[in-house]
Amino acid sequence: MNDHHPQAHGSRLQARSLRAGYGGDDVLHGVDLRVPDGRISAIVGPNGCGKSTLLKTLARVLAPTQGSVFLDGASVHHEPTREVARRIGLLPQSTVTPDLLTVADLVARGRFPHRGPFARWTDEDHAAIEDALLVTDTVDLRDRPVDELSGGQRQRVWLAMVFAQRTPLLLLDEPTTYLDLAHRLEVLRLLRQLNRERQVTVVMVLHDLHEATRHADHLIAMSDGRIVAEGPPATIVTPALVRDVFGVRCTTIACPVSGVPLVIPLEDDGSGGAEPVAAASRALSSR
Amino acid sequence: MTRTHGSPLMIRTSLVLRRRSRLIVAALVIAVPLVGLYALTLGSSDLSLGETAAGVLGIGESGTTFVVRGLRLPRILVAIAAGAALGASGFLLQGLLRNPLGSPDVMGVTAGASLAAVLAIGAELAPFLLPLAAAAGAGIATATLHLLTTRSRAAGARLILAGIGIHAAASAATVLTVARLPFGRLGAAEVWLAGSLHARTWAHVVAVTVAVAVTLPVAYALVRRLGLLELGEDVAIGAGVPVRATRVELLVIATILAGAAVAVTGPVGFVALGAPHIARRIVGQSGAATLATAGLVGAILLLVADVIGQRVFHPTPIAAGVVTAVLGAPYLLWLLHRWGRR
Predict the structure, then answer these.
(1) CA A275 to chain centre
(2) Which residues pair with A33 in a beta bridge?
(3) Are the beta carbons of B275 and B298 closer than 8 angstroms?
(4) Inter-chain touch A129–B234, beta carbons under 8 Å
(5) Tens digit of pLDDT for each residue in B178-230?
(6) % residues pLDDT > 70 (chain B)
(7) pLDDT tens digits, A70-84
(8) Contact status, residue A172 vs residue A203, Cβ threshold 8 Å
């Protein structure tokens, strides 16, 4: 699999022969993964393929039934969890917003792994909290109750909470789900900015293949609890992969803006497919 | 938004919040002894505030000093310590269960204590064993809740239902036990079940104060972890909270607090349920200040309930537990109504 990206990348976070699941039934059937440092990786695949399970196991929310997850060479499931939290941040899919909790209070809680049980707030804590608010453009919301915010604002605030943790690695489980197009782009742009400016390694589960292709450096395609393809989107997103992973017949065209492959599904009988694709290509190229 | 915001902004925000919650805590710390002093003036013979204060300090008439120090002060101190324990216990449990209904009197902890106490009365155990039996009953109820819910990783409504189930089962068993008590033991059971502060002694004061003094620092240390647990289990794990250990520690501390309170007062309802809500409303955030506020509000609620029981129903006072039950029922209904609308 590594021959997809010939230039060798370091990898602080790795999974080896990982099996994991819920209540005795494995969802992951042996996953080997080296998360490339300093890149944005997106895990894609159909519902139930194990992409969220993989992310949760990497983040030690789930314990593996076999195999291990290594961070800097040590098992994340055996290291003190607080030590791990200084290096890996997690934005899970399920979050709870208590009544009356203000944005500043929520974001400040991201500092947990850096603070002793009785420690007062340090300058470093304040700087990290404020920086997280600035980066996510939520400074003006800081005294507002989180449960009064709109969906897009709320997601930015949760991102700020995870950013305040100041970790070199970030894991995000479907960070764009339930957001409208503008807010999805905003979240993805924010992650890109963090990745480019601070070399934060990002791993996210994305539901939308198109979004993943456009915004990730590295795609991890899963099917039936296994990784079936891995590498830069431009090389691995092909009609054959989409057919094998999603069971959808398609063709691909180059995105007129970024050049990455865009997936265009074909009609079931295959007859009506070519014409819309050609029309779409014409429409795009005439702009 | 620009970079000119600079760091002072953020620091100022959190300072304002902290200053406000500190003021609230300070105001309550002053209010508790004031309400307590007023409560001390009440009884079979009303004393003036001056006489009462003199009695507390031991500089008044010897008769007054005896009444105040020997009879009334233990009652008031038990009310303060037990009320604080209930408020803190409710705060921790509600946070842990992420549900406003998650207080020891709704989740079966108090009911378990009552059952054990009634069984102890039926078995004619020595009176000083009654608080120990009650505390043990609280512990058994919590352990049952823990066993019923951790295996399935139950959360939210299911957990609440399990607690309400334990409450119902323990209450039914209590009624059954009382029904089969010999006539001579009925009175003792009835008095205990009413949740009374009547005839508390310095031994009660010492017992509940020690329990509170030992557990509150642990509770304080747990508040920060609770703050993340409230945001969801996965968020807490991601932030480095040892979730399983924290849940157990929170349950143990909440049970010791509730158990200690129930052991010395009998089952007093509403305080553990209402005090944390009031605290969250007035402090507006959740943290150490809210825990302290919940405890102080709990102390005031129990004191006020005792005052109402003595004052309003003078000359035949009723138990504080009866007053809180009367106050608590409509509050619970209102809470359910609000919860259902969300």
Answers:
(1) 35
(2) A15
(3) yes
(4) no
(5) 999 988 889 888 888 988 888 888 989 998 999 999 998 899 989 999 999 99
(6) 91
(7) 999 999 999 999 999
(8) yes
**Cβ(B249)–Cβ(B81) below 8 Å:** no
Burial B119-134 (b: 16+ CB within 10 A, else e): bbbbeeeeeeebbbbb
Rounded to a whole number of angstroms, the distance from the CA of B280 to the nearest CA of chain A is 8
Residue of B nearest to A130 (CA): B10
Q: Which residues of chain A make contact with B239, given a CB cutoff of 8 A?
A: 85, 90, 109-110, 112-113, 165
Task: Give the amino acid at B146.
Answer: H
CA angle, corner B82, sides to B79 and B86, nearest 5? 130
CB contact under 8 A, B238 and A90: yes
- For B289, other C-beta atoms within 10 Å of its C-beta total 21
Helix B271-283 to helix B320-341 angle (10° resolution) is 60
B284 with A100: Cβ contact below 8 A: yes
> β-strand A169-173 against A88-91: which pairing, if any?
parallel
Number of Cβ pairs closer than 8 Å across A and B? 117
* pLDDT per 10-residue tile (average), chain A, 287 residues: 53 97 91 97 95 97 96 96 97 89 92 88 92 94 92 95 97 93 94 95 95 95 96 94 92 89 79 53 56
Orientation of helix B271-283 relative to helix B73-97, angle to 10°:
70
CB contact under 8 A, B239 and A139: no
Cβ atoms of residues A211 and A203 within 8 Å: no
Q: What is the pLDDT of residue B93?
A: 92
pLDDT band at B147 (very low <50, low <70, confident <90, very high): confident
Cα–Cα distance, B214 to A244 (Å, whole number) = 62
- Write the DSSP symbol of residue A36: P
pLDDT tens profile B34-88: 999 999 988 878 888 888 888 888 888 888 888 888 889 999 999 999 999 999 9
Torsion of CA B207, B212, B218, B219, to 10 degrees: 140
Q: Please state, in angstroms and rounded to a whole number, the distance separating the CA atoms of residues B141 and B113.
A: 8
Structure tokens given for B129: 């064993």
Distance CA A156, CA A169 (A): 18
